[in-house]
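User: What would this chain look like folded?
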Amino acid sequence: MFDMGWSELLVIGVVALIVVGPKDLPVLFRNVGRFVGKARGMAREFSRAMNEAADESGVRDVAKTFKTATNPLGSAMDGVKDAARGLTEGLGKDKFDPESETGKLAAQRAEDTKRIQAATARAAAERKAREAEEALKKAEEAEADLQAMTATASAPAAPEEPESKI
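Assistant: Here's the prediction, encoded as structure tokens.
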């Protein structure tokens, strides 16, 4: 609401110093600070009271209704998600009679899920083991190349023979 920068505050401070004087300036600033604090507290209390009144009168419900009216696709998707969540919360193998066809299918599905999870875990472990073996082979090859380079660098160089001109 009040947009004041450092330059405006500096001008106000200089004018206050000239008008009030250096002796009474700290008292003036202390009183101004108290006034600003009280004003902020009153504004905060007013805002809180307005929010409580809005909650009691149902303004937030009306705002939510307007929001869903302006975005019907989003509200429809939220409705679909809520419905799907409501359907899936009650499902599980423990919710059905084990002797019924639905209970048998639920138990079979749970068993199949566990098998798939086990097979996936085994495949991942085998892949990681295979990748580890390949990395180990590459590391051994790199070490062998390094040793070969070190051996050729430390070996005495053979005397060069002059090229024959033919």
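Residues 43 and 49 are 10 Å apart (CA to CA). If you want, I can go into more detail on any region.
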